Amino acid sequence: MSDRAPMVIVIDDDAGIRDGLSDLLESMGMGVRTYTAVQDFLKDGLPDAPCCLVLDVRLPGQSGLELQQRLTSSGVDVPIIFITGHADVQMSVRAMKAGAMEFLPKPFREQELLDAVQLSLEKSRRSREKRTSDQALASKFAELTTREREILAFVTSGRLNKQIAGELGVAEITVKVHRAQVMRKMGARSLADLVRMADQLGLTPKN
Question: Where are the alpha helices (DSSP H) in the chain?
Answer without folding.
Answer: 15-27, 38-44, 64-73, 89-97, 110-142, 146-156, 161-168, 172-186, 191-201
